[in-house]
Automatic annotation (TrEMBL):
Residues 330-447 form the Response regulatory domain. It is an enzyme of class 2 (transferase). This is histidine kinase. GO terms for molecular function: histidine phosphotransfer kinase activity; phosphorelay sensor kinase activity. Residues 63-90 form a coiled coil. It comes from Methylobacterium phyllostachyos. PROSITE patterns: HIS_KIN, RESPONSE_REGULATORY.
């Protein structure tokens, strides 16, 4: 620093000090501005963080609310599903019980009509008996079909998969429908190489029975072909007819309940109940056998069922029993329904059998105590009064003799538990309504 002789700073020195202070001031102002900018950015970030936190909290609350609503919806759906399943099970139990009660009088009526047909009656009376028989058959089919649908919907039916030899099954089906086809002047052909598939033989037979029956009903001229052939990875069974065909807009509806379309049966009769193909679809789904339909109005219809090929050969079917006479055989009948017991007794007497009828085990015991002749075979109703079981009669009588005593159990209860218990007791099961021809064949076979 330079001083004037009188001790004051010179102008040049003062200017330099001012410039220096200005630089320092500029540096300080720049530092302050930078500090303010940084503080400003931090504040902005702070404000942004607060805003984002608010948004996150709002979205979290919204998501939590949605999750609670979803949980409530899932609980409501689960409750509705359980309610529907409970209703389905209740419906099945109701139909099973109702079917048992409804089939009892139908059974008595069919046995009475069959006994009447065996008598020496005028042709007109025989024709009327045939009409009544057909009406009873329709009622029986409807009751059983409704019960089947209920069981399939409730998941009660469990397929028992095993090897099934197709030539035997298809030949048997063709043989049973051949008289109906010939009556209408139709050809019924079977084409099946030696193929074994994996399926439930009972359900598979019911599916094919419904398909062939439908084909015969709606075919006026030509014929029906029941064919099986190898396909990629499996086997296809086709039921092809030359009938009236199905319109394109109805092809997707024919498997619905009670759908009969606009077609009439080829002989002018009313079409069926519209339940056969509904049963077919449900059974095919239970078996996991894909079902397809192709049709052209005026040309015919082809229904195809796809099945897996079995590597295991099917067991040979047992030989058909040879019928023998029932003359003189002593048949002991236990039946708590009076009309059914009377009708069954008349039918057996028409077959030249000796018949003893009882309502319960107490009556059988009294007869044995009185010295009644021992029976040759038993025909027992499964459900007796007061919760009693017909198999108790079999156990009582079998305990009083050394030689085997054949037993036939009749019931309108189609549950698996009944079937298992009858089989465990070594008895044969005949479901009501009893088919007289089936009963006679079984009686003669067991007595032989």
């Amino acid at each position: 620093m330079s001083l004037h002789p009188n001790g004051l700073e010179t102008d040049a020195s003062l200017r330099r000090r001012i410039e220096k202070l200005e630089r320092i001031n500029a540096a300080l102002m720049s530092h302050v501005e930078r500090t303010m900018d940084q503080r400003g950015s931090a504040y902005s970030l702070f404000q942004t963080a607060i805003m984002l936190e608010g948004r996150v909290r709002t979205r979290t609350e919204e998501l939590t609310g949605l999750m609670h609503r979803l949980e409530r919806s899932n609980e409501a759906l689960a409750a509705a599903k359980e309610e529907a399943e409970t209703a389905n099970r209740s419906k099945t139990r109701f139909l099973a019980a109702a079917s048992h009660d409804l089939l009892q009088p139908v059974n008595a009526a069919r046995l009475s009509i069959s006994a009447l047909a065996d008598l020496d009656v005028p042709p007109e009376a025989r024709a009327i008996a045939g009409q009544v028989e057909r009406g009873l058959q329709t009622i029986e089919d409807l009751i059983k079909t409704l019960l089947d649908i209920s069981k399939l919907d409730a998941g009660i039916v469990r397929p028992l998969l095993q090897p099934v030899f197709l030539p035997d099954l298809l030949a048997e089906l063709a043989e049973s429908f051949k008289p109906f086809a010939e009556r209408k002047g139709l050809r019924l052909a079977v084409r099946c190489p030696d193929l074994t598939v994996t399926s439930d033989p009972v359900l598979l037979q019911r599916i094919l029975q419904n398909l062939v029956s439908n084909a015969v009903r709606y075919t006026g001229t030509g014929g029906i072909v029941l064919a099986a052939r190898r396909r990629a990875g499996g086997v296809s069974i086709e039921v092809t007819d030359t009938g009236c065909g199905i319109a394109a807009e109805e092809c997707a509806l024919v498997f619905d309940e009670f759908f009969r379309g606009g077609a009439r049966s080829s002989n002018g009769e009313e079409p069926g109940l519209g339940l056969g193909l509904s049963i077919v679809r449900r059974m095919a789904q239970a078996l996991d056998h894909p079902l397809t339909l192709a049709s052209r109005p005026g040309h015919g219809t082809r229904v195809t069922l796809a099945l897996p090929l079995s590597a295991v050969p099917a067991a040979a079917a047992p030989p058909t029993p040879v019928a023998t006479r029932l003359s003189g055989a002593h048949v002991l009948v236990v039946e708590n329904d009076a009309s059914t017991a009377d009708a069954l007794a008349r039918l057996l007497q028409n077959w030249d059998a000796r018949v003893s009828t009882f309502r319960n085990l107490a009556g059988v015991r009294d007869a044995v105590a009185a010295g009644a002749a021992p029976p040759d075979i038993l025909v027992l109703d499964y459900h007796l009064d007061d919760g009693a079981c017909g198999l108790d009669v079999a156990a009582y009588l079998r305990g009083r003799r050394v030689e085997p005593l054949p037993v036939i159990v009749t019931t309108a209860d189609h549950s698996a538990a009944v079937e298992e218990r009858v089989a465990a007791d070594g008895a044969e099961l005949v479901r009501k309504p009893i088919k007289p021809a089936q009963l006679r064949a079984l009686l003669t076979y067991m007595l032989a």
